[in-house]
Every structure is written in C-alpha cells, then in structure tokens.
Amino acid sequence: MKPIICLDGDGVLLDFHLAYRNAWHKAFGTLPALKDPDAYWPTDRWDVRWLDGEELRHFRSYFDHDFWRSVPAIIGAKEACKNISNAGYELVCVTALDEQFQEARLQNLRDHGFPIERVVTTASTIGDVSPKAEALRQLMPIAFVDDYLPYLRSIPESVHAALILRQPHGSPNVEEKFTKVHSRHNDLSEFADWWLRRLKS
Predict the structure, then answer these.
(1) What is the CATH number of domain 4-14+73-200?
(2) Would 71 disulfide with which of 14, 17, 40, 140, CB 3.0-4.6 Å?
(3) What is the 3-state secondary structure (H, E, C) of 156-201?
(4) pLDDT digits (tens, 9 = 90+) for 71-114
(5) Residues of the chain with CATH 3.40.50.1000
C-alpha cells in the first residue's frame, strides 16, 4: 500500500474565494470588486455587504451541488499533487463539507485533473479537537495539509501537520500553545517542493 498524504479542499486544492465571488454574482447579479487581496476570508477579500435574514438565506441557496462541482482550482495545486503522487503517495482529500456534497467535491477534483480518488467529508464545528481528527485516525496518513489551524488540533501525533498560511489579513493561523504544527508553507506547491526535497536528502 502507498503511504497516504491527506489534503484539505478549500484553500489548499480549490479556490473558495473565486467560487464565493461567482456565487455572489449569480445570487445578486453583480460581480464584487476586489477590496483586499491579502484577506483570509472572502467577505473581507471582496467588496460585499453584510447579509442576514432572507437575503442571507437566498445567498446560501446558491451553495448547492453545482457550486461544489465547480470550485476553481488554486494555481499550481494540481501540478503539486501530481508531483507528490508520482513520488509514490496516495492523496486523499479530507474536507469539512456536508456529506451530501461529497460526490460533487470528488467530481470537481476529477474535472480539474487532480490525482485524487477519495474524498472524506467531516463536520466543520470547531472545538478542542479537530473535526477531522477521527478521519485522520482511520486513514493514518503520514502527513496532513490544511490552511486552517484549528483543524490541526489534537490530530494523531504520528501525522506530520503542515499548515498552509496563505493570505495573512484576518487569518486564524496564529500560534496556539497546544496545537502542534510541524511545517508552514505559503501554498501547496511550496509544501510539495519542500516535502519531496526531504526525500532526496
């Protein structure tokens, strides 16, 4: 069996920021302008208003099966995955997403050409233990790559925890005393290059 490396979906493989902008366009008929290119959250990145009540429910209705099948890939992520896969690893996407959209996420990755044939969905609730921890205990990968620090809380000690830092403004990826991070990278391409260099040294 090949050793497994688990990867998060949004923010690591797929560009949720662009998908959010496209969903806004479909819901309200306007394409939001860029407000802060270094913002971590899409509501800060794009020039959009705060939503609540019926308007928020209307917007959320666009986060449907078609939405999750059409999230754009992050530039360089597919190539990074191919390099890791060619080095002899199995890649599994472990993503905080409603189970009903699991197949949509897998099809989205296949459509982009990612060498990934397994998607595991988990809850997104944040607590002292990552909602992804149980999935990681079952898969027992050698590494897990995520762009959200709370999802690295209390994952198995044997798993290399790699944090993708990405945009810094408003980022939750600040130091936590009890959350172990083994390596930090700006994006998946940087992680892949670093990981594969380690194999050669």
Answers:
(1) 3.40.50.1000
(2) 14
(3) CCCCEEEEECCCCECCCCCCCCCCCCCEEECCHHHHHHHHHHHHHC
(4) 999 999 999 999 999 999 999 999 999 999 999 999 999 999 99
(5) 4-14+73-200
